Amino acid sequence: MGRWVDVAALTQGEKFAAYVAEPQGTPKAAILVIQEIFGVNEGIRAKCDKLAGDGYLAIAPDLFWRIEPHIELDADVQEQLEKAFGLFGQFDFDAAVRDIEATIRHARQLVNGGKVGAVGYCMGGLLAYLTATRTDVDATVGYYGVTIDQRLNESHAIAKPLLLHFAQKDGFVPQEAINTIRAGMADNAHVTIYEYPDVDHGFAAEMGARRVEAAANLADGRTNDFFAKHLR
User: Fold this and answer.
1) 201 an active-site residue?
2) Does the annotation count 170 as an active-site position?
3) Number of folded domains in the chain?
4) 7: CATH
5) What is the average pLDDT across 111-126?
6) Catalytic residue among 62, 138, 149, 170, which?
């Protein structure tokens, strides 16, 4: 069971909440879990709890705090899905990366200066990519990150390991976008990309109708191996 903590924002005098799940004993490292458009909901907290069970300190910052703090939405409820898209339309990605940087600093303190990784989903998958290009994070994973293909001008800044998972039947990240991302990062040895056939966006959600068990388990197994290698 995790707890909520306050993280000092990079803007003086401001703070935001983050959910923290801690392992038994000394953490191997810290991992940020970067939310979808549904907030730090039950599914994101479950991701944190799983990582804590694997020996990591996991922390999920509430990146919607400037719009509607502590909001939790369900992708399977149409009204809430529509609200989530509305929040996405108001979202400031540059400010969110600064909040992620603040959370990385906070997490490093919690693990006594140890390594910090990050994993993000959907909107968080894009933010994971931007985290890899703009921060000192040690290793990063993005699941079905949206519009990465439109931000490849930043890919030259990736200097540490980045793993990207994509669904081949994704209505938000079509195959053409995945191909563009592959081509744009082909020369960067730090980047690994996997594609999953016959699954759609959100296949690795922790719960709900979007989840596809086999593909989720395969992707999560690769993520676990990636962090075990790069956060030791």
Assistant:
1) yes
2) yes
3) 1
4) 3.40.50.1820
5) 98
6) 170
